[in-house]
Amino acid sequence: MTTEPLIITCAVVGAELTREVYxxxxxxxxxxxVAAEQAVAxxxxxxxxxxxxxxxxxxxxxxxxxxxxxxxxxxxxxILQYSTGGAVGxxxxxxCAPLQLRPEMATLSMGTMNFGPEIYENSEETITxxxxxxxxxxxxxELEIFDLGMLESIDRLAxxxxxxxxxxxxxxxxxxxGMAGTFRNLALLxxxxxxxxxxxxAALGRQQLPLTTHGIAMGGHVRVGLEDNIYYRxxxxxxxNAQLVARLxxxxxxxxxxVATVAEARKxxxxxxxxxx
Length: 277
Fold this sequence. Notes:
Blueprint: E1 8-11, H1 29-42, E2 46-49, E3 51-52, E4 58-59, H2 62-75, E5 79-82, H3 92-96, E6 105-109, E7 113-115, E8 118-120, H4 124-136, E9 140-145, H5 148-159, E10 167-173, H6 183-191, E11 199-203, H7 208-218, E12 221-224, E13 231-233, E14 236-237, H8 241-254, H9 262-269
Parallel strand pairs: 1-2, 1-12, 2-5, 5-6, 6-9, 9-10, 10-11, 11-12
Antiparallel strand pairs: 3-4, 7-8, 13-14
């Protein structure tokens, strides 16, 4: 097993979750900033960022991203990773708009899929536009992979010069319409990766704990947070994002793999030679 420090990403709010389902969901800029600070204090080095508007609805408004980012940076040092996914149905121009704030990282979903009962649209035209916006603003792309076809499309799009040369991969498993959150599927995906490419795993619901544990042992990195899973164990809601992060830190220690500091995470991801805003 690798001894490379483990990068923990925390997805603190997401775009779909509501307070009817999780009463303590952070929604305001201050609440999101506090949740991020607590997650970083617990051991996260990357904050995967969605924001909400004044009514608590998912938003890609630049002013809200700017406010939340500033509040987080005032509280802690971390790698901010903006979501360009927005919510299902968010127009392309809105999905790209926050990138003008030049976060260190931004996500790029690699294909259209059924997202439960809805369609999450990521045509080649959409991927091309978001990839161009990510590169124009000096961000590192995290390619979000929901099934094997999305992973195999990377080489095809790279030949067309659509994708940046440097990127991180995040396997998001267990989404209805995507690959199931199983050990076999994770192993299949990792086996197809180019040697040396950094990757992480995120899994929904009850699969989050076993798959992130497996990811640690396989030498990858991990993502947890309320966006993906609101339960600490069966029937027991998580107290916070930080509680989910802290459990992974304990597991990593038991597996004798150190948890990355923010500086170490930047070095592993190749962000240490980029200008941070």
